[in-house]
UniProtKB/TrEMBL annotation:
InterPro entries referenced in this protein's UniProt entry, alphabetically: F-box-like_dom_sf, F-box_dom
Protein name per Swiss-Prot or TrEMBL: F-box domain-containing protein
A Pfam family per the record: F-box
Top-level division of the source organism's lineage: Eukaryota
Amino acid sequence: MPPRRKKAKVVASDATIEVATSSGANAETKARAPTRRNLRGRRGSLKDMLNMPLDVLYEIFGRMHPRDLLNLARTSKDFRMLLMSRDSALFWKAAREQVPGLPECPAFLSEPQYANLLFSSFCNNCLKKNAQMFVWEFFVRVVREAFDMRDLTADIQENTGIKESFYSTALMPRTKHSYSMVHYVHTPEYEKLKTQWKALETAEEKISFAKTQVALVKARIEPAKTLASWKTNELQTRSSELDGLKQERLDSILAHLRKEGWAEDIKKMDYTDGLDLRSHKAVRKPQKLTDSAWESIRGEIVALMEEIREARLQRERDALWSTRLELMCQVVSAYDTSLGRRTAMSDTQAQFADLALMPPFRTLVDAPPDTSVTAQDFENLRDSIPTLRAEWLEARRAEILELIPQEVAQASKAELSLSLAFVGFECAMCSLENLRWPNVLAHSCLRPKYSNPDAYKQQVAKMSSMISMPAPWRGKAGDLLFSERWKITRSVISALGKDPDTTTYEEMMQHQARMICLSDDGDPMEVDCRQAHDWKSAVVHVLAVAEEDSLPGHRAKHRWHVLDASEAARVIALEEPDIAPELDPNNIFFGLEGLLPVTTRPKYCCSHCRQSATRPLIDHCITAHAIKDPRIDEDFYVHPDRRGTLDIMKPVYVYPDGEDNVVEPDFRAIVAKSIPEGSI
């Protein structure tokens, strides 16, 4: 280390100490005496140690840790010369004996090398600090990025014909995160051996060199194992010491907290609470806690304890709510069972979770802990369930009516009703279209099970999930949008001869009329034809044409032709649901319904329990309810949230009457005489 630069001395003269005065002024100048820095030691204070007798040095060095000897050897050239000489081995050995359990120095290492390996934090390759990676087979200490090793075992054998026993190898992972183990060699050792081997000329020299090298490799095996075991034990001992200090600090903090009135909270802490406290940065330090240190961290610890207390109280409330909700569930389930078989309308009414949020039931569930709440208390509210469900339904009706834009109200000549055929909605989260009232009340996106800021509502949702019931209704502004296809739907309804201001959705679903679009370009067939549409597929057709034409709205003029009753009946006879291959039992892809988006999978529900699936529950009804011949809408039904997925029909085509038009037997089509001549 270079000597410290000397500073010039500052000498104060008598003139600067005296007080200078002038006429008419009382100014006073004070001299500042030179100050000295308080240093813990003076440079050169160890220089006289080298003049001490060897027995005194032995006593001094023998009481030092090997790490201290290493640092001392790096202070000056004189100390380095003294401690690196062969005569200093006794000093190093005496210092080594200060380390409990440290194995003897291997014969192939000097005492300073041994101390540097174990107690210096510098990398043996790049001299970076904090080198914590030991490769005992090579007796090196390195940082991982500077460790020069290669998988050269095959290369060495190919070039020299000598097996692995000729050089040291380390079995290590191929990469940092790999489970594949590879025998590596230390590159510096490999290069040295290769150079020495090439310098040998005769076979006798090579044999002698190989025997010496093999003996050296064997001599390294046991010391490497011993040192690895010692280092492991040392780390474990050190870890135990640190854990002891951390535990002592934690105990001191708990003692301070008990004095300040937190004894009850400490007693009721569970494992998670204790872990939060132990993991706090001010608690996990391996340092003893002093009074001043406690004062510096007290605010943080008290704030954490307040959070732990609030979390514990919330857990106690959740447990109390859960117990009472179970009692309520028994009463509501018994009432629903008394109503008979479940239908699709059962899923559109207020569910158990919705009732739990309404005042009569919530008042009971959320009563103070010291209030006794029994099953009879909920039984007393059983007769109020129909009224509560009616109130809930009207509240949702008013809520959803507000989603209809003013433009729609102005276009309608009659009072708006959610049951009108052109009134539909779209989910902003899953983009499911054509949601209808009251089926929209069963849509899963509007009954989310994820975190709710209200703790009571969150517990109700959690309880509902545990008993396989829908979560509470949480339809928020923006989650449900009024359908933008309302103008198209009104025009299609009018084309079928119905009044869109009074015709309901159910009336249109029962309407047997079918029509074709004369403005269509036809099917890519060799003969002209048109697809027959019911009112819903006609709306989809207009939207598809608008998308193809890149129009912002719909086509201004669609020439519709309504088929006569007999032709419509023939079309209806050929119609069948357009089921996805994954749901068609006659298709090789049957059973792979998981490939379909959730919103396009039909959902079937059991009428006798709450079982549901994406396929008809025939087997379930037979095995679980002993029903020999299960029937749809009697023993199981389609969930209203997925009802629209089964309303889509495979296309049926209409050909004009003519002797050149021949319909293939396996093609769903009819020949219609009512189509105006020349219209196609």
